[in-house]
Every structure is written in C-alpha cells, then in structure tokens.
# Entry
Amino acid sequence: MRRNYFLILVSAAIIGGPVSAQTSAISPLALVGKWKASESMPNGQVMSTELVLTQNMRFSGSAAVAGNRFWEYAGSWKLDGRSITWHYESSSRPLPDAAKTDVDDIVSIDSRALVLTSRVSGKRHEFVRAN
# Structure
C-alpha cells in the first residue's frame, strides 16, 4: 500500500509539476519577523510601513510619510489558509468599528518577501523582511 501511495505522489508530481505557492500551506512561523514596505504616493512623497509579527500572534507597526510617522498600531493576527485577519486593539488614529478587523490575502511569501492583497481596497502591498 505504501508503494502505491508513493507511486501516486510521484506520478502527480511529474504530471502536475511543482506545487504552486498559491496552493501550498503557509506556516504562521514563516510570517513571524519584522517587515518593511514603501510606496510612492500620487503627490510624489513616499509612504513607508513597518510591521512586526510575533510568534504569540501579535502585531505592531507604524506608517510614515516622508519620514514623519503618522500612525502607530497594534493587535492580534490569525492565519486562516492563505488569509491573515488583523484585529486592531490599539491605534494612534481613531478607527471606526468596521475598520478594527481587516483581512488580507497572501499572494506570496518566502524568506525575503511577503505580498498581500487587501480585501477592502484590493490594493497589493509588497513587504521585504527587515531582520
């Protein structure tokens, strides 16, 4: 029976090719660490974001424009398949109740980069590992 199972797996790998990152399971440990992102805004200024994800499923971060920090936040996160749910528990800017929980889809993750798509805005965010 083991031999048949092995042959089925080998055949599937040969026929189907490598498993896509889109379908492979993601370990929460792969997300743990310090991440940074920056993007140009329509007015030409650069917005930068720092995000720290911990093993105890907590996050903290900040956002700055042209080096001036305008938002600090923290809370808890949960991985569900290829989605991250963010529960904001503190914020230096007022958040409406509807914005205190957010969900992003994980487009890709590896040892150097994390790419997320916001379910709210549809916007893609590309982070690089900072630690």
